């Protein structure tokens, strides 16, 4: 039974094989017939040879240190690709690419018969194509341009050439004028002067304007490039040192720019403060001028008011004077007419009254009755005061032209 079971198992294993998902198979029958089996499941092989192929092949170019840390097994795992940019800067390029093998049985059979084994495809076609295309793509730009942000162009060039064929390039050496200079990306100052060898690289084109390409097996066998990534570019040490100086110079330039901006800001601030102070002084002076003008206008109006007031007072005084004069003239005229009518009797009487009042005051205390009297002719005696009064009164009445009747 064991022998029969072993014979049956060998018969089954020789007659059938199991196709795993994610693999394609090249089946070669004992008769020499070869077929491609791309479907998963059990299939007849008639004791023929079955060669498995992964449907997706990943090729990576990484450094030895990264290879040890990665730990994953890929169909192709090589060290970084040495490239040279068009400014003669050397670099190590890390690249990863994913390839999908053809799903068409005829194309797969053609590829499988050509390379016989997947390792032959990877080592004999995919890896050399990736390396050649990476080197060709690096020639399109300079290391400075890559550092400046044109790395996407490098990656696009790699993907495009893997999918459609490698560019045919024309390179023309550019002779520097005297001594060329490597300059900072962010600053125009020279970092280090040295003679550079640069190339003007252009893609050769056909008569219809399309890019002229060199075909490679990737496109010929229907292999699809699903992904191509430039993971890292490690330039040579000399360029790194230049980049370090460049970075330091850029940082210093940035600091100087900030200082210049700060100085300009301070300058503008001082100017602004000066303008503000000047404007404040101007405003204050204008306020003082306006105040002075208002004061002058006020004084002027006050003087005008005073002048008008004085004019009114003068006019009023004149009117009053005229009034007084008119009244005086009227009074004088009245008195004159009265005096003309009664001979100024009233005044004369007033004068007469004043004189008699004076006489009365003068003889106040005087003895009017004589103490001694001697009669007869030639006799002496003391005059009577009444005689003096009578005489004075008579004289005054004569002067006043008043007739006074005396009782005998």
UniProtKB/TrEMBL annotation:
Domain Band: 25-262
Pfam families: Band_7 (PF01145)
Domain of life, per lineage: Bacteria
Matching InterPro entries: Band_7
Protein name: Band 7 domain-containing protein
